[in-house]
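User: New here, please read:
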Amino acid sequence: QVQLVESGGGLVQAGGSLRLSCAVSGIIFRINNMGWYRQAPGKQRELVAGITSGGSTTYADFVKGRFTISRDNAKKTVYLQMNSLNPEDTAVYYCNAEIVVFTTSDYWGQGTQVTVSS
């Protein structure tokens, strides 16, 4: 059974940093695109950053220059380094991955809470 297990969320003061990790467990053939999304209370889930299997990245405008997405294919893990956090970054952060087992499917992590205090 394929699972995405996230870690690294928590409470941080404005201007601080956090690093999120998301590890894929289970027997798989290949991981294609991976990404991080977030959902704040009362808002829709939105893309934060994405990374292809080859390492090409994309970022939402509101995190450019502050967040960095990376992945370790050998460890089947994607990371999100978040710097210069502000209270507007407070949300539940979800890991997403397109994974090939027998077919290609989208998988989601359980979410990790990030809270930035002012």
Notes: The chain has a mean pLDDT of 96. The radius of gyration is 14 Å. The chain has no helices and eleven strands. Residues 23 and 59 are 20 Å apart (CA to CA).
